[in-house]
Design brief:
The complex is a heterodimer of chains A (89) and B (132).
Chain A (H helix, E strand, L loop, with lengths): L1 E6 L8 H11 L5 E6 L2 E4 L3 H6 L7 E7 L3 H13 L7
Antiparallel strand pairs in A: 1-4, 2-3, 2-4
Chain B lengths: L3 E7 L2 H13 L6 E6 L5 H15 L5 E5 L5 H11 L5 E5 L3 H8 L6 H14 L8
Parallel strand pairs in B: 1-2, 1-3, 3-4
Helix pairs in contact in B: 1-4, 2-3, 4-5
The chains are: A alpha+beta (89), B alpha/beta (132).
């Protein structure tokens, strides 16, 4: 199991489009992936779940990945956060 | 083989929801079509169009038919469609964007399971934003 705090850095936060990109990436992996903000923990492969986090810019979410491909999954998810979910700002 | 989605709604409500879903997701993972129903429509003609659209988009696993409000003309067209088609279809009323997004998030599910996801998506998407 891998756990990491990642910061939502893009201007619009984890809005619909960013959530869709994250979920599409997460769904490629067999590992279980969850995101947590405060007391709310959601399934990282559910777009509705990710959107319910309402994670604005500067929010820190705890990402937990568990499974055979957890290392690759965490690396790629972290890269996505760092790349502002492929958005310019 | 996959399930497809047909929205039958007042005006362009369904089309706008499908377009919005496509913008949000970047693509539509399931075939989606909309049938717009106006005040001056001919329900019999629209039934024929609905039957034709279902045949067009059916990919082998049936069609999830979503309508906006139960008891309305679009909803009644859906009821007629259920009684006048050989295809596998399932009708849900109360279409909202969370319902559509949830359904599109599970493109590999068979129709009965997709129905459950659509229903839960619709309900889960209704949130009292004032409650902390």
């Amino acid at each position: 199991m891998l756990s990491k705090d990642l910061t939502v850095a893009n201007k619009l936060g984890l809005h619909a489009r960013a959530a869709a990109i994250l979920v599409a990436l997460a769904s490629n992996f067999s590992s279980e992936i969850s995101l947590q903000k405060g007391s709310r923990k959601i399934n990282g492969k559910s777009i509705m779940g990710v959107m319910m986090l309402a994670a604005n810019q500067h929010t820190i979410v705890n990402v937990v990945v568990t499974g055979e491909d957890e290392q690759q999954a965490m690396t790629e998810i972290e890269n996505l956060f760092n790349n502002l979910f492929d958005e310019e700002e | 083989m996959a399930t497809s989605i047909l929205t039958i709604t007042h005006g362009n409500l369904g089309q706008e929801l499908i377009s919005t879903a496509k913008t949000m997701l970047g693509t539509l993972p399931l075939k989606c079509e909309n049938l717009s129903v106006s005040n001056t429509c001919n329900p019999e003609k629209l039934l024929a169009e609905a039957q034709s659209l279902c045949k067009k988009i059916d990919d082998g696993d049936g069609v999830l038919v979503l309508t906006d409000i139960f008891g309305s003309t679009p909803s009644n067209i859906c009821s007629n469609l259920r009684n006048n088609t050989d295809l596998k279809i399932y009708v849900i009323a109360g279409l909202n964007l969370p319902m559509l997004i949830r359904a599109l998030n599970y493109p590999t599910l068979k129709l009965p399971d997709l129905v459950k996801k659509a229903l839960s998506g619709a309900h889960d998407g209704i949130i009292d934003c004032q409650v902390k």
